[in-house]
């Protein structure tokens, strides 16, 4: 789901940050060790679950709220260790032919991504049950694993020249579908909590698309921007699956609302609609379909693309940030964890176009439970 930071980043004082699958905890690794934090009271405090001194890490994945963590160190980048952090014991370790670029976990499978292969382990006994060899060169270790056990799908790039997404059934161990998502190579992938949808972004970074992971049909097309081509580094569905958040190498984080009810209403036949609705969303849909016969595809695509529901502007560009949206204490929250060592907590507006309000900024580099309240800064 999250990031890979090399030795130069850690040596420069940066941190590795990673949310778990259901956004209940945050893993933070620095040059001196790693910590796990609970997000249950993040509006006010950041409670530390665990901390240990260790080798410099560049990958850590926690399995939901369990005591199972998978880690890869800078010193041994080809070795995966699976540990029980509460017992402070190592369950197993595996070595691979090349550097491990990504590790993904759910309750059924553990995925290890190398540059040109993927290893699928059974989470119960950690044995390798399948290997996908000779994948297109994937130097960034781009892949996604659904957190769902029912729709346990693995996604990875199917081409080095185009934005093809390969969907693989990680339980039944066979290819499911190939989605021609973009014209340019992929930059980001994320499954919805149910695993039935997948969000994609390309290296161009202007358009985000959401597809059915089961049949490859396009469900949403979202416009991040018109002028700036950016590098999208994080895509994440909200835990309620109603929102999608993206971050890039710019200072702006975009939140999109996935309005499935509006889509169904607009596409339904014989449903009653008010005149206001017709002049709003439905007329927009009608116009976008009507002009298809008269205008080039590139133009009609712009008509049909959804715009950001809300956005956040952070202090500076060029900082890698992992984003997530979760319901915490019955409130919807945007969480932004950045490699420069901060966790930002925002409220999400109920009205489109309104501003997200900053609630808290936590300093991840502090070793105690102190969190700086941005209101006093």
Automatic annotation (TrEMBL):
Stored InterPro entries: PROPPIN, WD40/YVTN_repeat-like_dom_sf, WD40_repeat_dom_sf, WD40_rpt
Keyword ATP-binding assigned: no
GO cellular component, as recorded: cytoplasm
Sorted UniProt keywords: Autophagy, Repeat, WD repeat
Keyword Oxidoreductase included in the entry's annotation: no
Any single Pfam family the record assigns to this protein: PROPPIN
GO biological process: autophagosome assembly; cellular response to starvation; defense response to virus; glycophagy; larval midgut cell programmed cell death; larval midgut histolysis; macroautophagy; regulation of defense response to virus
Coiled coil regions in record: none
Source organism, top-level taxon: Eukaryota
Family per similarity comment: Belongs to the WD repeat PROPPIN family.
Name this protein carries in UniProt: Autophagy-related 18a, isoform A
Naturally occurring in which organism (per UniProt): Drosophila melanogaster (Fruit fly)
């Amino acid at each position: 789901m999250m990031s890979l930071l090399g030795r130069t980043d850690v040596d420069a004082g940066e941190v590795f940050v990673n949310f778990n699958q259901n956004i209940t905890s945050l893993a933070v690794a620095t040059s001196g060790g790693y910590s796990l934090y609970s997000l249950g009271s993040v509006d006010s405090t950041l409670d530390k679950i665990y901390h240990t001194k260790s080798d410099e890490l560049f990958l850590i994945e926690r399995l939901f709220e369990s005591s199972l963590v998978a880690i890869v160190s800078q010193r041994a980048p080809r070795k995966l260790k699976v540990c029980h952090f509460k017992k402070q014991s190592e369950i197993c370790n595996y070595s691979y032919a090349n550097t491990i670029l990504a590790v993904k976990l759910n309750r059924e499978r553990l995925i290890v991504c190398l540059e040109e292969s993927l290893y699928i382990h059974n989470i119960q006994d950690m044995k390798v049950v399948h290997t996908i060899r000779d994948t297109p060169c994937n130097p960034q270790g781009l892949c996604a694993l659904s957190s769902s056990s029912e729709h346990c799908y693995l996604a990875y790039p199917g081409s080095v020249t185009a934005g093809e997404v390969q969907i693989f059934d990680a339980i039944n161990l066979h290819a499911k579908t190939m989605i021609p998502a973009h014209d340019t190579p992929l930059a980001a992938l994320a499954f919805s909590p149910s695993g039935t949808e997948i969000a994609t972004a390309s290296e161009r970074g202007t358009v985000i698309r959401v597809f059915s992971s089961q049949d490859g049909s396009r469900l949403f097309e979202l416009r991040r921007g018109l002028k700036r081509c950016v590098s999208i580094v994080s895509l994440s569905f909200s835990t309620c699956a109603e929102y999608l958040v993206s971050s890039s190498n710019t200072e702006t984080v975009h939140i999109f609302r996935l309005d499935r009810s509006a889509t169904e209403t607009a596409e339904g036949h014989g449903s009653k609609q008010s005149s206001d609705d017709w002049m709003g969303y439905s007329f927009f849909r009608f116009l976008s379909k009507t002009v298809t016969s008269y205008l080039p595809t590139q133009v009609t695509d712009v008509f049909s693309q959804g715009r950001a529901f809300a956005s956040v502007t952070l202090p500076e560009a060029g900082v890698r940030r992992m984003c997530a949206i979760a319901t915490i204490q019955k409130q919807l929250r945007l969480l932004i964890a950045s490699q420069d060592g901060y966790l930002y907590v925002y409220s999400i507006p109920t009205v489109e176009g309104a501003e997200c309000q900053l609630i808290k900024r936590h300093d991840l580099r502090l070793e105690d439970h102190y969190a700086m309240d941005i209101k006093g800064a």
